[in-house]
Write a structure and sequence with these properties.
Sulfite Oxidase, Chain A, domain 2; about 20% helix; about 550 residues; Immunoglobulin-like; homodimer; 3 domains
Amino acid sequence: MLLLQPIVRGPWVLQRTPRLAAVACGSHPRACVGWTPPRTHGTWSAGGSSRRWKVTAVGALLGLGAGLAYGDHRRQAEEADPKAAARPQAPYPVFTRQEVGRHRSPAERVWVTYGGEVFDITDFVELHPGGPSKILLAAGGALEPFWAMYAVHSQGHVLEILREYKVGELSPEEQSQPAQGDPYAGDPPRHPALKVNSLKPFNAEPPAELLSENYLTPSPLFFKRNHLPVPAVDPATYRLEVEGPGGRTLTLSLPELKSRFPKHEVTATLQCAGNRRSEMNSVRPVKGLEWGIAAISTARWGGARLRDVLTQAGYGEAEEEAGERHVCFEGLDKDLSGAAYGASIPYGKAMGPGGDVLLAYEMNGEELPRDHGYPLRVVVPGVVGARNVKWLGRVSVSREESPSHWQQNDYKGFSPSVDWATVDYTTAPAIQELPIQSAITDPPPGATVPPTEITVKGYAWSGGGRGVVRVDVSLDGGRTWHVAEMAGEEQPLGRAWAWRLWQLTAPVPPGSSALDIVCKAVDDSYNVQPDTVEPIWNLRGVLSNAWHRVRVSVAQD
Amino acid sequence: MLLLQPIVRGPWVLQRTPRLAAVACGSHPRACVGWTPPRTHGTWSAGGSSRRWKVTAVGALLGLGAGLAYGDHRRQAEEADPKAAARPQAPYPVFTRQEVGRHRSPAERVWVTYGGEVFDITDFVELHPGGPSKILLAAGGALEPFWAMYAVHSQGHVLEILREYKVGELSPEEQSQPAQGDPYAGDPPRHPALKVNSLKPFNAEPPAELLSENYLTPSPLFFKRNHLPVPAVDPATYRLEVEGPGGRTLTLSLPELKSRFPKHEVTATLQCAGNRRSEMNSVRPVKGLEWGIAAISTARWGGARLRDVLTQAGYGEAEEEAGERHVCFEGLDKDLSGAAYGASIPYGKAMGPGGDVLLAYEMNGEELPRDHGYPLRVVVPGVVGARNVKWLGRVSVSREESPSHWQQNDYKGFSPSVDWATVDYTTAPAIQELPIQSAITDPPPGATVPPTEITVKGYAWSGGGRGVVRVDVSLDGGRTWHVAEMAGEEQPLGRAWAWRLWQLTAPVPPGSSALDIVCKAVDDSYNVQPDTVEPIWNLRGVLSNAWHRVRVSVAQD
């Protein structure tokens, strides 16, 4: 069974990490590029050009949808390096892997290989969309294992940019060295109905029409958003480490987690921050996976309450009263530097009696599937998917948020005026609770509907436990509205963690040739969705919650 | 001093209430008109016409902005009563007040007097915008004291409608009977800068430009929203009654409240549900006071924590765990039937450690002003003004929300498709937490600004303790955006009860003759304001939080 493989797979991960430790500086790119202090919130000047370079590198996303950035960077690299034209031309000098291996830092120049070619990428390091620290992991060696990790590199223009930095070729005998293993080879099989947005790491959503068929999304169809390869965890040797106050660590096996703490069950909807990004992307290009409307799903989760486990580890109200704290999570899914996926949530959410945060070992009444965090994950109801850390390895409490790239330099919202040249991640809070959301799952865009009556279906959900109190549906682009009927369980006030599925059956206005169907929801704080996408556009394409629109044709008699 | 007057003023209140008790049925109009069970949420059929009558009467607001409804009702009354044309014509018969006094119920016909005229309003009772129970309070007597209570009646068309029901005249000697007292005669003096939206009851807002001058709004300029006359409370005899579990009542004098419970201070913004109603009204007419953008203010409140007082009264976590409960408040301000202004909040908000709900006796470091609830009021941070009950007389805990008109049949949000003929107040939750809000306080609309640089100022706030994380400002109607600078205190996560004042200084685009200034704010759940007013329009004109727009001219060189 795949599940019984060792925790860390792929020998080159273990081999390369120590060698590169001096060059790379962990998962937090900010540490590498000279961190600039937070700017006053509210200036809109672009800042000096050298600062702009740094911020651009810092702000760039890690290996996802980064293709877009390459065009910019190429142009910027040409502007920044007047010697670009002076680079070696064919016939190229020939190097050994050992010679390439001597170039591992900007001081000794940064060289890498791809296939049989050698590249001096020193001038590109700061321009790397995934951050300089990530590209430096490959310094002195081959790019292939890294590109295998982040499949976004498998695009023609990436290789084209790389070739501009070519300085030589490998000796013929070294070119035949076997290729590195695929870190994703151990990923589990997936349901064929899923619409795959990225294969490596695996990111996929169910067909929208299937989404509203079930209040609880069947686990195989539940949207999948992995940041790294799925780790293979042996349940027999698995241990959760919980860092207690004063350095004491509580270590729990799976049987201990299940027997020492009461099992608590919560029906909760999880939504990716990038759900509906494709609509934002169609307004102006953003960086990120091209999610449709189905990066959202609902399951019944079972596990131990995080507050029970933290209490057992020695935490209590005293910590909360002593000032703001955060509960930090680390996954067992690790990048090439050995840094784990990580995230944090506010201490009050973790410890509050109504927070319902779980260390879940069950999904829809069964053991967690591997894609959803087997054997243990965090479920943080009402909070963006990214904080629901899967394959949970470690829990700690800190005065600071998780130092993880995904907490510090991703999953934040910005003004539409902010671009990659001006973004400053320190000025925006990490996304936790999500805003009110709804979408039409049926009919699909472009469908032909009968001329008599139409049934429109969809979902609606809001973050922070705020219940959905109403969904308005329009058949005429928002000029007139109907109130949809909602299904779904009644949920306690402030703990409405699950979506409401809704539907509307209405007569088709006589003589219509097309309908512009629109939905918008209202939560119990009476927050509403914004009318249009453009004013909430942001460079990462997150928090896309404008009215959802589906245009259909009406069959003519 | 005004403050030393007896609690209940105006002898006719005490005299009339018992006499009319059998006819009127308290402050809950629903009880009077035959309550129809909740409809399935989501039908958009208009319902039967008889039901529509009832709901219209139920849903109409109590004595405020009701003028609008009269037109509808007049038309409906004509349709409903085919005998309307058969009413007496001049010369009219003459009656004594004693004769009029025999007509106090629909069975004996409902007669009232105004000036020297007598009216049979039996057919109008169900059509009264303030509800049948309210108009029945005047049955058999004079309308003047009631119209003095609700100044909305002082409009020409109201008298015009009344005259259609004329059946006679008072005998000349009875016409000279002295007029009833003005229940508002004891209201306190107010600041002359306030913009008065209604004098009786007193409702006023400060000039918008003054609002952003102070983080803490000076108490005389703090917006005032009274529903009834300001009661004159004697602090020496004042007692707060807190109904404990099992029928035990905790009675607290002011000195006891101040000495037995630690004083807690909170800086909190209060906002009327109707703030910015005038913008909604300009899209399509709504019912309610014509508030501008300044029905929102911020103060430093001091008092006892509600949770400390409820704990002293015997409440604890057991109640919360036993299911949903509500903490109900009653004011000492009473209507003509003797029913108090009332409201409730969820038990969890009242008892939660982070709820910060106060029984406040101080405002901005001084004793509460009379207009703001002297000697004691509730301050519910993050929650709509209407639940912050002033002149607090009684606190109780219940499985049901407050039965008050203002909790049940007002201060709720509806779809733009719902009108007074179809509204069903049971289908919408009482407004508690308010949505994200912001507005431009300076420059004022229509101002002329310099052609070089402009400074725009405003406020931003969100309900539920959600902090404002960003304000975007546009000078070109929303095509491009700047991020404003925010002032104001840092507030703990989840307890951001106070607004942020913001400003933006930006160059005026060369060649502009006018600017279309727009602002929109984002809270820490990344909720945003909707783009436009029309899709959030609702019949009561509450929750008006679309982008705020101010158009100005640019001075030409």
